[in-house]
Amino acid sequence: MPQRRMTAQEICYQRMQKAQQQAAQLAAAVKAASASTNPKQGLTGEKRRVAHRPNASLPSSKPVKAHTSVGILSKTTSTTMQKRVAHTPTMKRPVIPAEFGAKVPTNVRQRYLNIFIDECLKFCSSEQEAFQMALEEEKVVCDRSSSKNIYLNVAVNTLKKLRKSPAVSVNAKCQSHEGVLGGRLAAKTSYTINRSGKQQDVDLKGAILYKKLQKYAMTEEQLQEHGYPRPHPEVSGHAVVHNLPEKKNNDPFSKICCRCGAEYKINAYGSCVRKEECSHHWGRLRRNRVPGGWETLYNCCSGAVGSPGCEVSKQHVQDGRKESLDGFVKTFSKPLPVEGNGGVYALDCEMCYTKQGLELTRVTVINSDLKVIYDTFVKPGSKVVDYNTRFSGVTQDDLENTTITLRDVQAVLLSMFSAESILIGHSLESDLFALKLIHCLVVDTAIVFPHRLGLPYKRALRNLMADYLKRIIQDNVGGHDSSEDARACMELMIWKIKEDAKVKR
Ligand SMILES: [Zn+2]
Ligand SMILES: [Zn+2]
C-alpha cells in the first residue's frame, strides 16, 4: 500500500507542478471565495424538505458507504491481471437449483459458484475435480450465511482463500483466458468470469466518451434532490443544500454523534466536554429475508437494531460538513477544445473526523484511461479526533508530513477541471462537500445504478462491481484505496454505456 501511494504521487508530481503553476493564478479567485460572509446566511431563504433518514440505516452516508466488508480481507485484484490457465470447457457446469423464498437468491449463488469454478480450474487437475470443489465451497458459504449480505462477505473470503491456493502460483505464467478473449479492456480489468460471449470491443475514449456520458449526467433537480452542494444565489463562496432534514436542536454546544446517535456536549473550542466513549456499529443496517418475514441487522456483526455497538471509539463525532457551507469554490467555464471533449474524470475522497466534523484527508482523481492523475494526502484544518482508518485507509503516519491543505487541493482541481468537465463518483455529493467544490456536470453511479427499494437506499459500489463487472473491490484489510473506488466508477460507466448501446440495437 504505502509503496503504491508513493508511486501514484510520484507520477502525479510533475503534473501537479504544472497544475499548481496554473493554479496560482486561480488562487486569488479562491481566496476571494473563502473570504465570504457569515456561514449562517446560507440556508435561511431556502426551502427545506424534511427527508429524515435514521442515522444508521442511511446507506448514502459516505464513511459507511460501500465498505461492507472492509477489515476482513486483503487485496486480491484491482489493477493486476489475474493470470489463469487457458482451458477448453468441455463439461457442462453445475447449476444451483432454484428455491423459492431462499435467503440467498439463486442467481447470486450461481454467480459465485461460477467464480469459484473459475478459480478452482486454475489448480485442479480436472474439470470434474474443480466443479466438485467449487460446489462444496459454495455449499459451505451458503450454510454459514443467514442472509444475502453475509453470504456475499463469506463468499468473498472463500474466493480470497481459493486465490491464495498454493497451486495457483504454479500456473501464474499462463496466459489469461479472458485476457485473450476480451482484448485490451478485459486484460486491464481482470475479469473472473465473462463467458457470455459478449465482449467489450470498442474502447470508449475522448470526445465520444464525453458525449455519451452526458446522457447520464444529473439534472439540476436531481442535484438538489440528492443533496449536492449548489451555489448560493447571492453569496459567492457559499453553498446551499436542499432536502436537508429539519434540525432539531439549535444549541451550538450540543451535538448528535453521527455514529452512535448519542447527544454530547462540546465547549467553545469544539472539544467534547465529557470524556465519553462512542460505542457503535460500523456496518450498515440490512433488511434480510427470514422465514415468515424480514429482519433488520447490522452487517458488521449481525447485531439487531438497538443492540450494543460492536466497536468502541475514543469519543463521539459529528459529520458537520453541511453546517459550514462557506469556503466553497465553483468550477470555471472554459472554452471546449475543437473536438468537443470537456474532460472526463472520476474522483474519490477520504475523510477523517476532526473537531469540526468530517474533513478531507485524501483525494484521488482518475482520468478516462483509468490512470491516477492526482492523488494526495491532505492536512485537515482542525484537530483530528478519529482517523477513520477503517474506511479511509488513511493513517496518522500518512498525514504526519503533509502540508497540502484543502485550499491547495481546490486550486489544483479548479485548474484540472472546467465547468464543462464530467465528474464521476459514487455518491459524489459526499466528496464534493469534503472538497467544498461546486460542480454541475455530475454522473453519480449510485443514481445510475439505483437500489431496487429506491431512496434513501443506495447500492454499495463494491456490490455494483461484483454484479456487473464480476470483480471484487475494497477487500483490503487496511481500509480501502480511493484510486480503486474512483477507477471502479469510471469502469462502471464505460460498461453501462456499452450495455445500453446493446439494448438499443
Ligand atoms: Zn456491529
Ligand atoms: Zn458516538
From TrEMBL:
It comes from the Eukaryota. Residues 343-502 form the Exonuclease domain. PANTHER family: RNA EXONUCLEASE 1 HOMOLOG, RNA EXONUCLEASE REXO1 / RECO3 FAMILY MEMBER-RELATED. Keywords: Exonuclease, Hydrolase, Nuclease, Nucleus. This is REX1, RNA exonuclease 1 homolog. One of its GO terms (cellular component) is nucleus. It is found in: Nucleus. Gene3D superfamilies: Ribonuclease H-like superfamily/Ribonuclease H. It comes from Cyprinus carpio carpio.
